[in-house]
Every structure is written in structure tokens, then in C-alpha cells.
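hey can u run this one w/ iron/sulfur cluster bound, need the C-alpha cells asap thx
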Amino acid sequence: MSMEALIYNIQHFSLHDGPGIRTTVFLKGCSLRCAWCHNPESIDNRIQMLYDEKKCIGCGACIQVCSNGAQLAGPEGLHLFCADQCMHCTECAQVCYAGAMEQCGYIKSAEQVLEEVLRDKTLYQTSGGGVTFSGGEPLLQADFVAEAAKQLQAEGIPTAIDTALNVPWDSVEKALPYAELFLVDVKMADCQKHKKYTGAGNDRILQNLYRLAEYKPLYIRIPVIGGVNDTEEEMANIVKLLLPVRASIKQINLLTYHDFGIEKGRRFAKEMQRFAVPTDAQMQSFSKQFQSVCESVLID
Ligand code: SF4
Ligand code: SF4
Ligand code: SF4
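ok here u go:
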């Protein structure tokens, strides 16, 4: 039987998830809880419903089909979605013709995913691209990722895995023979601070990083978050962490914080913290710090 995974998006023509033109498969579920997460809908490992108030025309169709009291008529013809009452049956999305209720997360088989990503095979070949598995944390569904990457390898298509590495090494190991590149998030050096902002310390992440560097080329992705890690001292500490594995690091991406996650969180009643956006001058300065690790440092 074909392996299945919970997937919330498949993005074609992606230019930021590895070399060349890529298709990025986003798996749902994450083992971290980063306070700044720009895809908060990716964290929960269940199907969820997202509500876009701006699209709602107040037709009431969702209220008729919801047997859990999660869809309510508000005052003056307004409609209210109570995310905490929702049992994720998805029926409201099927009757919401305005597209205000949206299902986030679909069970897909490896065959279905392969069929979709193989449509762009020629594009991967001409651009030096391939397929990237991202999330959430794709290695929480490592058997699926390994199986899909194995089939892509048989088709001659390179696979990258975009991971925060907060998983058992066994999960990394499953995908190792089939992935050509790993994009690894490194968020901060101090373990306690890492725990405060992401819900987990970074001991296991760093152990996995050092081990992984023995096998595969790495792109390191560092989110730069105002008031959290946007100081020269913090960046210098990350530089120190990376120097021992510099031979494996082919690119560093500094990811400037943006607040898109706040609006996305609102769509399922999750309040996300707002952080300051680092300035261009800060990002340029941090970029210079990382050039001692890798010649290719990009600011995204
Ligand atoms: S079905 Fe859609 S458009 Fe109609 S009230 Fe519900 S959310 Fe709004
Ligand atoms: S998905 Fe949630 S809100 Fe929609 S009908 Fe089912 S229980 Fe009600
Ligand atoms: S690791 Fe990525 S997906 Fe997971 S919570 Fe952090 S930012 Fe979000």
C-alpha cells in the first residue's frame, strides 16, 4: 500500500528552497513552537479549518452543516467561527462557496505527490532544481519523505529536505540515502533561550547538525528576529556553532523576520506575538559576520 502523509501545500516554481527551480511539498506538523513562526498553520499535525473573515458573505451555509456549534450567527448578520469548538470534519469548507472557510491539510499518498511534482520534471532538469520537502517539520513523517525521495531519485530528480532537526536521529537517517541536500534552520545558540522562544532546547538539534554534516551538503537558514537574536553577539555565537562544520555549508540564508504569521494565526484564532523587523543595515552587517563560515551568504 502506498505511504501517506498530511500535506498542507505543494508550491510550484519555488526559487528559495534550494538550487534551481523547485517544487516544495509542505508537510503539516512540527516539533517546535517558534514564537515568530511565519506558517503557524503548519504546526498542528491534524487537519485544521482556516477562516478568512474578509471573504465571508454571511450566507450562513456553514451554520446549517456544523453540528458542533463552531459556526455561529453573530449580531447584524455577521458570522462567527469558534475554532476551539471545531472538530475538523471539513463539511463547512465544502458548502462555503465564498471560500472563507478553507481546509488546511490533506492526506496524500506518495503516488499522488509524485504525480504532481513530476509534472515539472523538465523544469528541474533545465534549471538544476528539484523537489524540496518542507513544513512544519517534514522529518516527523520521515517514512513518507524517504519513500517519496527514493522514488524521485529513481526518476533522476534531486531532493532537498528543509528541517529544524528537532527529531530523533533515526528520522534523519531514514531520508539520508535519498536526499542530496539539507536546508537546516539554526535559530540561536543559547539552549535556554532556544527553549523559551521555540519550546525546546537545541542540544538534539546541534547533535543532529554535526552528525548530518558528515554526510550531506547543507544550506543553513537563520531567522533574524528583532529583540530575540538580532545582535552582533547572538550572530557571533551562531558563527561559532557553525565553524566546525563549515566544510559542509554551501550557503547561508539570513531570513528577515516578517509578520505574515500574525494574520495567518488569526484565521484559526491563534494569537501570534509581534516582533520588530531588523533593519537592512543590521542584516548587511550580520551577513558580513557569516562570511567567515561560508562565501555565499544571502539575505531573504
Ligand atoms: S459559509 Fe462561508 S461565506 Fe457563508 S457564512 Fe459561512 S464562512 Fe461565511
Ligand atoms: S470543520 Fe469545524 S466548523 Fe466546519 S462544520 Fe466541521 S466542526 Fe463545524
Ligand atoms: S520550526 Fe519552522 S514550522 Fe516549526 S514552529 Fe518553528 S518556524 Fe514554525
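The mean pLDDT is 96. anyway lmk if its weird
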